[in-house]
Structure formats: C-alpha cells, structure tokens
Design a protein that fits this description.
Blueprint lengths: L2 E5 L3 E2 L5 E8 L7 E7 L5 E7 L5 E2 L8 E6 L4 E6 L8 E8 L9 E2 L3 E5 L2
Parallel strand pairs: 2-11
Antiparallel strand pairs: 1-3, 3-8, 4-5, 4-9, 5-6, 7-8, 9-10, 9-11
C-alpha cells in the first residue's frame, strides 16, 4: 500500500519561504513520477509541480521561478521549496504519485499539509 505523508506547512508572511516534504513508502520511488498539487479554499485542485523518474522537473508557467521540486531517492522523499509566497498561495498542498508529471490526475495522494500566507 502506498503512503504519502506531507509535512512542513505553516503560517508565513507574504514574501516568506517554506519547504514542504513528502515521505513516500509502498512504491518504487526511483521509478515513480511525483507531483505536488494544491487546493485553495473554494477552488479546484491545481497542479503545482512535477518531477519525473529521470528527475526532470515541470511547472506551470505561473509558478515557475518561485517553486522548486526535488527528490531524494535515498530518503524516498519529495520536496517543494516555495519562495516569495503571497496570499494567493494559501492552500492545502498535496503530494501525489501518478502516471504523468503534469495535471491533477494521480494514482495515490497524501492527506495534505496546510500553507497559509498572511500578514
């Protein structure tokens, strides 16, 4: 059974940074395509970033440059470094495994970690 456990969410001021972590188990992590999704209050699920099994990274144009996804195969952990956060980044952030590195589809997803950006 696949388990994805996110951590690192917090309340941060505009302009601040956070690093989210996702500890993965129950899957062939080296071969997995991983992604981060988010859901803001009252809004649809949104794709945030993806990293392929070959460690190619993908971002929507709107977030490229502020967010960085990475993975540590030895620790079976995926990270999301978020810089220059703004209130529009407030959401529950989910780690997911899937067939593709883009989009909101997934085969497994964690329970999420909450990020709030406010002064």
């Amino acid at each position: 059974e696949v388990h994805l456990v996110e951590s690192g969410g917090d309340l941060v001021q505009p302009g601040g940074s956070l690093r989210l972590s996702c500890a993965a188990s129950g899957l062939n992590f080296r071969s997995a395509h991983m992604k981060w999704l988010r859901q803001a209050p009252g809004k649809a699920l949104e794709w945030v970033s993806g990293i392929s099994s070959q460690v190619y990274t993908y971002y929507p144009y709107s977030l490229k440059g502020r967010f960085t996804i990475s993975k540590d195969n030895a620790k079976t952990t995926v990270y999301l470094q978020m810089n220059n956060l703004n209130p529009e980044d407030t959401a529950v952030y989910y780690c997911a495994a899937g067939i593709s590195v883009r989009g909101v589809d997934y085969t497994d997803r964690g329970k999420g970690t909450r990020v709030s950006v406010s002064s």
